Amino acid sequence: MSERKELLERLGIYSKTLTISKSTQPSLEKGKVVSFKVCPRKVWVLRSALISLGHPVSCRAKSLMERDTLFPPLREHSTDVIIVSVGDLGFRDGAEYRQIRMAATDELHLWLCPAQIALALRIIYGDQPKNERVHIAMDTIPFLYKNKIAYGIFVVGRAGKRFYLDADEIRSDDFFAAEHLFAFVRPPQHKLLQS
Length: 195
Description:
Elements: H1 3-11, E1 13-20, E2 31-38, H2 43-53, H3 59-65, E3 77-85, E4 95-96, H4 97-107, H5 115-124, E5 133-136, E6 141-145, E7 148-159, E8 162-169, E9 175-176, E10 181-186
Parallel strand pairs: 5-10
Antiparallel strand pairs: 1-2, 2-3, 3-10, 4-9, 5-7, 6-7, 7-8
Helix pairs in contact: 1-2, 2-5
């Protein structure tokens, strides 16, 4: 068994990735579903796993992770994360962050991600395509950056062979082009992109 699989098993994280090319849902043409079970109840367990796997964590992401009080303990559960582009949500010319969130949560009934999902997704998403960056759709977390209070969300990315966890400063009116990717949680029993 590989060192990575052994670590994930020890932490109680199991995964299965399903790639979807088409959907019967008219408002969502395609996407990717990453399914995993998360057992760790504290963010420090996931943080330790990131370090053990050697995934770089940016200064901004570390600043977000320091806000432990904003990471409520996770109950053991299975999670389906849907990764979609802004264009897949119907915004061919791009959209503001607030529009992206509303389209996914109000129209498609997806959920915003708890902050821990970003860490778990970085650990699990080992087949992430090169040069892909996935913004985690979540409530923003205030953090200190360059001596000012900023609000950020996590970004799970891959540059060449290097997998990393980053964070972007974000406001509700920030604009994202159609090709930008976002991750949302698919609620249990939700029919969207079921295999």
